[in-house]
Amino acid sequence: MAGASARRAVAAEGDNQLVVEGVSKKFGGVVASQGVSLEVPRGSIVSIIGPNGAGKTSLLNMISGFYKPDTGRVLLDGQDITRKKPSDIAALGIGRTFQNIALFQGLTVLDNLMLGRHVRMKAGVLSSVIYWGLAQKEDIRHREAIEEIIEFLKLQDLRKLPTSALAYGLRKRVELGRALASDPKVLLLDEPMGGMNQDEKEDMARYILDVNQERDMTVVLIEHDMGVVMDISDRVVVLERGRRIASGTPDEVQRDPKVIEAYLGANRSGGQP
Amino acid sequence: MSLLDSPKTDTLPKLLQRNAEESPGAPGIREKKRGVWQTHDWAAYRDRVRDFALGLAAMGFTRGDKLSVVGDNRPQLYMAQLSAQALGGFSVPVYQDSIASELVYVLDHAETSVIVAEDQEQVDKALSLKDRLPRLRWIVFDDTRGLWAYDDPMLRSFESVLEEGRAYGKANPAFYATELAKGGPDDLAMIAYTSGTTGNPKGVMLSHRNMVASAESFIEVNATKPGDNWLSYLPMAWVGDAAFSLGMTLAGKLVANCPESPESVQRDLRELGPNAMLAPPRIWENMLTTMQVKGDDASPAKRRVFEHFRALAERCELKRSDGKPLTASERLGLMLGEFLVYGPVRDQLGLRNARWCYTGGAPLGPDTYRFFRSFGINLKQVYGATEASALIACQSDAEANPNTVGRPMPRVDVKIDDNGEVMLKGPNVFVGYFKQDEVTRETLVDGGWLRTGDAGFFDKQGQLVIIDRAKDVGKLIDGSAFAPQFIENKLKFSPFIREAVAFGHGQPMVVAMIAIDMQTVGTWAEKRGLPYTSFMDLSRKAEVAGLIAGEIAKANATLPDVQQVKRFLLLNKELEADDAEMTRTRKVRRKFVAEKYAAVIDTFYNGGKQVQVTMDITFEDGRKSSLTNDIAIHDIERHGTARPQPARQAA
Lengths: 273, 651
Hints:
The complex is a heterodimer.
Chain A: E1 16-27, E2 30-41, E3 45-49, H1 56-63, E4 71-76, E5 79-80, H2 86-92, E6 94-96, H3 109-116, H4 125-130, H5 134-152, H6 168-181, E7 186-190, H7 198-214, E8 218-222, H8 226-232, E9 235-240, E10 243-248, H9 250-255, H10 257-264
Parallel strand pairs in A: 3-8, 3-9, 6-7, 7-8
Antiparallel strand pairs in A: 1-2, 1-4, 4-5, 9-10
Helix pairs in contact in A: 3-6
Chain B: H1 12-22, E1 27-33, E2 36-41, H2 42-58, E3 66-70, H3 75-86, E4 90-94, H4 100-109, E5 114-117, H5 120-129, E6 138-141, E7 155-157, H6 158-171, H7 175-182, E8 188-194, E9 202-207, H8 208-222, E10 229-231, H9 239-252, E11 255-258, H10 265-272, E12 276-279, H11 281-297, H12 300-321, H13 328-349, E13 356-360, H14 366-374, E14 379-383, E15 393-394, E16 407-408, E17 413-416, E18 421-425, E19 432-433, H15 437-443, E20 444-445, E21 449-458, E22 464-469, E23 474-475, E24 481-482, H16 484-492, E25 497-503, E26 510-516, H17 518-527, H18 535-539, H19 542-556, E27 565-570, H20 590-596, H21 598-606, E28 610-618, E29 624-635
Helix pairs in contact in B: 1-2, 1-9, 2-3, 2-6, 4-5, 8-9, 12-13, 12-14
């Protein structure tokens, strides 16, 4: 696999596409996030790691608008999106996958992907029903975009199958496809490799690199497999109990004594699973 | 008049040129991409072949150079082969699932200078080998996906070669036509490497004369029509695919259709509904199994209808093959069945438009054969060899029969020599093995007779019957003949047995190693509430051994007493090409298996009940590991007396 070093250079220092400024979130007495900040340079792959309950998924939920932070801001290309609705945030260019797969079980792979594209569809109900002129043209264009994703993720033989009939690893791939279908600028992936075997993980890692490079998407990733994280990330952010305890290149993070103590274990240098 | 008599149609790229001039707008080659069948007409097909050829020329490719293609069936890979041939070079297609160490032998031996690879997976393989391939100059890739980080100077995209070709064509407008005209029928078209059941693969040199003659005779027997659809899904490195997807489609103006991906073949087959179909027995058996599984899931009423008409069809088919007339009610029943069952089943299988279907490469079980025939599918046998440009004999519509392989192709002479070996002579017989004159002299004898290495005979109707590989036919200790493949095929007719290897030469009795069919045995176990975790676990179940013993007893009943399998064991892994136990076309490499399992064979004959086996396993990515465990050996109890069978049961 081509490592991060082989990829084209990430945009210049300071050009952050996504910025999270000191967000905090409490659920009753439970502190999910406490003043967490995150800078995601344009075109990079940033991984968020940390033990269970560190607040990784909460952070993604605040970026994508599912949670509203108690304090702090989220900026996409300089625009404050903190208080926007999730659907508006999706339309602005943030796509995401979920840890526990959010697909419509009874729908086919194709329909799930088309639904993922919904935020990009402009034709109204009436013109879609008549299916004439603009609506028809639009439909064909969207279908083309979906076919590109099907080819990209090698789902050709699964198009017409209901997602409930797919193996777990394939569903994860369709889930990625659904997120890609909205043409996001920033892709948030919540444990895309959870529960996968080694082969499936390698495939997924390759898809993530390809998404980043060929489709020019910035990627924010939560992942537990340290081998993958250290291999493909440009930057790694470490959370523990709702706080950010370290951030930097994979090398820097692996050497950081705080990280070694808190997360990777005191006597392990980390890096390999 | 043969196409070979005219200097305008005596090579494959000249035939493409002819098609582009005579029927520019008719479909030439099609591929399913992004869910839609996309067609290149003959003119576009020719243009791309021409531009790619010009691009190759600009890159220094010249007469006598070799171009390899590696990947799944894609129009670009067919085009690249024709481009090389148009320049007087030849193509060397290689198996896309070969591991790197196998590839390096073929590519090095063939002196390949250009590799055209389908995608990143194949590019990775080629790049990992380039240091061991001193003659390799270019690696051209078709699918650009995932290749953004690659900066090897050897790499070029297919599109960039076309572009360079268009520029080269502008500067040298007469170049392509001149090069094309220089080619003649006795130039080499391709080197097809046979996977070889013994030793290293051999490069079979086939001329344009071979390819065109073979295509012409097949078109003659089967009356193909221009525009007939053909599904190109068999491995490109297998000579059969070259013979059909290049030879036959170019000579007969048929349309080669490339499926979207290897996984979607079944779906694409149904969508396309080709006019003809060639498949090895395994695929026919899979189709039948899938249909039976689907049938079992249907509602009871539907199932009864299906069973009723299936039984009726098979009864009528048996009557017909015995030459007995059908009753009026049977005829009526068949008509109703056609409407309710047979037609829809053919449609589901994607064979609704198929005028003829061939099975070849190995014998097909008579039950499976009869099933397809009785449902109105014109299934016939074909027999061939790489050295004979794929085809030696095939059955015509009137002579379909599971026991023979049909009559020799037109203009091909077939004889049986004194040792019972099938020999042939004709325009389809190959030029020789590449850089292996010694072997060529052993194979091409007495002024052009090709020794096939198969033992066979002609039956009373003049149809050829194949028994076994001649060198495999041995003798038991009592002197009676032992044809291992003949016995193995009987065993493999059971849906539960995927592979079988029989031993017995120089021994007192016949024994067999069996690999179960994971799918059917798995379903069988599930129905009985028998839990299992893996292939190995399943193979070790006593119940499964009992099942297989019963299946062997059934096969034994059709064999003469001395030929019956007396002891067997169940392998705890499938036989794999990656472990060198089989060839890429799934033929057992008998000698290799005998060496690998020497301990097992000893135990078979010293009466032991158990044997410890250590096996090396090669994973798809080339990693190796080994596995040691005990395998039980089972004895077959005799079930009644076996009836001796006459020799016509062969094949």
